[in-house]
Amino acid sequence: MTKMTLASYPHMLGFEQLESLLERTAKSGNEGYPPFNIEQTSDYSYRITLAVAGFAEEDLAITVEDRQLVIRGRQNDAAEGRVFLHRGIAARQFQRSFVLADGVEVGEALMEHGLLHVDLTRAKPETVVQTINIRKG
Q1: pTM for the complete prediction?
Q2: Residue 51: HSE in the Cβ half-sphere, 13 Å Cα cutoff
Q3: Is residue 76 very low, low, confident or very high in pLDDT (cuts 50, 70, 90)?
Q4: Hey, is 69 helix, strand or coil?
Q5: 8-122 adopts what CATH topology?
Q6: Nearest 5 degrees, angle CA 90-CA 92-CA 97?
Q7: CA–CA separation, 71 and 118 (whole Å)
Q8: 52: three-class secondary structure by DSSP
Q9: Which of 77, 82, 101, 124 is 20 to 30 A distant from 21 in Cα terms?
């Protein structure tokens, strides 16, 4: 059985990058931690919200790398010298990646009540009509 790719469709020209982007997203290794929401806040804006209880702003890093929004968290283990009878709140590191389409820009990030909000905006697409002249051969 032959694997169907975007290149297999003759009317889909120039989408090879999209295919590699989809493959990279599938391999990103995002686990279920921390949980997150993605909401559309207007026709051209979005908000990603991650539940990061126990993390301070200095424990988090937000970067954009090759059209991927990457959010990392690493807590300092301040448990030295402390004796836990039960430790149910994990102090583990995480990395969440989100692939951004062309024209999507990362806006501000806000910490509020243990939630990290990251706002995104997408440029309004312009309609471009181009006329191609036909030469006589």
Answers
A1: 0.72
A2: 8
A3: confident
A4: strand
A5: Immunoglobulin-like (2.60.40)
A6: 125
A7: 10
A8: coil
A9: 124
Residue for token digits 């999507």? 104
Residue with tokens 């991650």: 50
Q: Name the 3-class secondary structure at 16.
A: helix
Residue 59 DSSP code: G
Residue among 20, 111, 21 at smallest CA distance from 62: 111
CB neighbourhood size of 127 (10 A): 4
Tens-digit pLDDT profile for residues 25-55: 666 555 688 999 999 999 999 999 999 988 9
The tokens of 126 are what?
């312009």
| CA dist 35 → 51, 96, 115 (Å) | 6, 10, 10
Place of tokens 């009878």: 85
